[in-house]
Amino acid sequence: MSFISQSSPHAHATNSTQKVMLTVAAATTPGFIALVYFFGVGVIINLALAIIFSLALEALVLYLRKRPIKFYLSDCSALVTAILLGLALPPYSPWWLIFVGCIFSIVVAKQLYGGLGFNPFNPAMIGYVVLLISFPVNMTLWTAPVGFANTPSLAEAFSSVFLNAPLDGYTGATPLDAFKQSQGETVAEIYQNESIFSDAVIAGAGWEWVNLGFLLGGLFLLWRKIFSWHAPVAMLATLTVCSFLFYNGGSDSGAPVLTHLLSGATMLGAFFIITDPVSSAVSQKGRLIFGACIGLLVFMIRHFGNYPDAIAFAVLLMNFAAPFIDYYTLPRSYGHNKSRRATEKVDV
């Protein structure tokens, strides 16, 4: 009688990498729909180009590394990186800007480190920060939301993306830009002078719905247990506390709490970026510290720094610190009374 030789664990994995990545990609749908509704077809063009460029670059590098292309592309990690980068870029970005971002996200931040599982930094945020530092003008040209300016036609969209035609008359300040550029004015004056704010909105027209869409997708991922609640809750709680403490309504006041929470890339960062299992902390205690530090850095950069939004910088800075956090928050090894760190110190 022969027995089947099978290595442990014998239970089938409930979440393959491909399944997790496709679930994350699907969860971005509510936020994506809100972005398209308020900012136009440029969001779709961004996403399509980012996906095409990312998959092509991943395939090229895999070919040069003599790795099986179909096997590695099928894990859909490059697809998720492309989606996150495409959603973060301003609509109607030039094609070359998206291409450069994909090069740094896929080739530099991911493949040069060895591929999925070896990258110490979030690939999409590496590409975004490189573009923000290198091409600040292009990275701040967000179109005004629907109702505040005419949405570019399809012909104008393609001219902007592929011919680098300017979209004069279509762009406007984001809510966080408005607060950053209106220093010296009280919060009431900012709300009165900036057209993106109205009686019906607090965090900026369109941006509230975009962030609520990503919040809905993030709650879906929590329900599916794709990641734990520790990092997102810690980040949002810290950002809430800091913005509440520094808000007084005067000329030296920070933005209101809801403006911080429902503007920019707050919810996209909280549920889709800082939860990256490769570049974040590992333990539950470590994820709480990791998320809280990101929330603190986001507020500090928004309130005291030169950049209106700060998700990418905060995430990359904490990617640096993730191994340090893991070292001091390692759980006790099974069968041992002391943590591994304490054991290492005794051995030394």
TrEMBL record:
Its cofactor is FMN. Pfam families: NQR2_RnfD_RnfE. The modification FMN phosphoryl threonine is found at T174. It is a multi-pass membrane protein. Part of a membrane-bound complex that couples electron transfer with translocation of ions across the membrane. It comes from the Bacteria. The complex is composed of six subunits: RnfA, RnfB, RnfC, RnfD, RnfE and RnfG. Signal peptide: none annotated. It comes from Sessilibacter corallicola. Belongs to the NqrB/RnfD family. It is found in: Cell inner membrane. InterPro entries: NqrB/RnfD, RnfD_bac. Its EC number is 7.-.-.-. This is Ion-translocating oxidoreductase complex subunit D. The chain crosses the membrane at residues 20-38, 44-64, 71-89, 95-113, 125-144, 200-222, 229-247, 253-274, 286-304, 310-330. Keywords: Cell inner membrane, Cell membrane, Electron transport, Flavoprotein, FMN, Membrane, Phosphoprotein, Translocase, Transmembrane, Transmembrane helix, Transport. It is an enzyme of class 7 (translocase).
